């Protein structure tokens, strides 16, 4: 970054990203070595989490995540990792298995709830996703989390289940009622079997 700041405009940005993979490889090993040498330091967990999130997909990032699950699975800050994994953009091998492990082994209710939500968002099996959302409602419904944006897990899971059951590809659309431009009442089900284009819009 020091070198990149000396360069004008996009040239500095391009230089930074071109060299980032090399820097990750060089620095990752050093960072993991520092972590290993300071196992009793209270800041150690935060350091490992930083490597995991900022070097995901690299050898250093993978090693750091393995360390998290080997030594710190009982840390309540593992909830932060769940929030990132829920976005589905972090290149982590066996992310689903890691989330399953958190659900089974974390002693913290907030972590188990967040891991359940993250796994439900990422899992490909629709039946499993429904089971996970139902588990959220039954076991963690009153909790809130940054990943639910102020809603309870029950509210977030209810919304997700509705989308999964009724709004995903191949499902029968929920019936709606309204009036056409001539004021004639109609229902969506009146057009069953026909190709229908729905245009939802608002003017505020």
Q: What do these coordinates show?
A:
With 204 residues, the chain is an all-alpha fold. The protein has one domain. 59% of the residues lie in helices and 3% in strands. The chain is built from 9 helices and 2 strands; from the N terminus they run αααααααααββ. The chain has a two-stranded antiparallel ribbon with strand order 1-2. The radius of gyration is 23 Å and the shape is extended.
Which structural category do the helix and sheet elements fall into? mainly alpha
How confident is the prediction overall: mean pLDDT?
85
State the total count of DSSP E strands: 2
Q: SSE order in H/E notation?
A: HHHHHHHHHEE
Proportion of residues in extended strands: under 5%
Please list the strands of the largest sheet in the order they lie side by side: 1-2
Low-pLDDT runs: none
- Tell me the number of structural domains: 1
Q: Helical stretch count?
A: 9
What is shown here, in short?
Helices cover 59% and strands 3% of the residues. The protein has 204 residues and is an all-alpha fold.
Descriptive keywords:
mainly alpha; two-stranded antiparallel ribbon; 9 helices; 2 strands; 59% helix; extended
Describe the protein's topology.
Layout: H1 2-5, H2 9-37, H3 44-54, H4 59-71, H5 78-85, H6 95-105, H7 109-122, H8 126-140, H9 153-167, E1 177-179, E2 185-187
Antiparallel strand pairs: 1-2
Helix pairs in contact: 2-3, 2-4, 3-4, 5-7, 6-7, 7-8, 8-9
């Amino acid at each position: 970054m020091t070198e990149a700041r000396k360069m004008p405009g996009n040239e500095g940005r391009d230089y930074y990203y071109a060299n980032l993979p090399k820097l990750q490889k060089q620095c990752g090993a050093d960072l993991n070595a520092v972590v290993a040498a300071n196992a009793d330091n209270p800041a150690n967990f935060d350091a490992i989490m930083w490597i995991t999130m900022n070097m995901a997909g690299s050898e250093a990032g993978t090693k750091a995540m393995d360390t998290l699950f080997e030594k710190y699975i009982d840390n309540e800050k593992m909830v932060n990792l769940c929030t990132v994994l829920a976005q589905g953009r972090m290149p982590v091998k066996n992310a689903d298995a890691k989330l399953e492990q958190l659900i089974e082994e974390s002693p913290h209710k907030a972590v188990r709830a967040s891991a359940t939500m993250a796994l439900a968002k990422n899992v490909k099996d629709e039946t499993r996703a429904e089971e996970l959302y139902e588990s959220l409602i039954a076991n963690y419904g009153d909790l809130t989390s940054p990943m639910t944006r102020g809603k309870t897990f029950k509210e977030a899971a209810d919304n997700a289940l509705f989308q999964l059951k009724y709004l995903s590809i191949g499902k029968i659309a929920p019936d709606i009622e309204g009036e056409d431009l001539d004021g004639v009442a109609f229902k969506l089900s009146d057009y069953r079997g026909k190709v229908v284009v729905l245009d939802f819009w608002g003017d505020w």
